Amino acid sequence: MDIAHSPLTVSNTQSSQLKAFIILLAMLLAAGAAVLMKPIQMLAEQQAQIDLETMIPRQFGDWQEEAQRSGQIINPQIKEKLDRIYTQTLSRTYVNAKGERIMLSIAYGADQSDAKQLHYPEVCYPAQGFQVVSTQPGIVKTDFGDIRVKRILTVMGSRSEPLTYWTTVGKQVARGNKETKLAQLRYGFRGEIPDGLLFRVSSITSDAEGGYAVQQDFSRALIAVLPARDRLTLAGLPAVVVQR
Question: I need a labelling partner for 211 at 20 to 30 A (CA). Which of 4, 36, 173, 202 fits?
Answer without folding.
Answer: 173
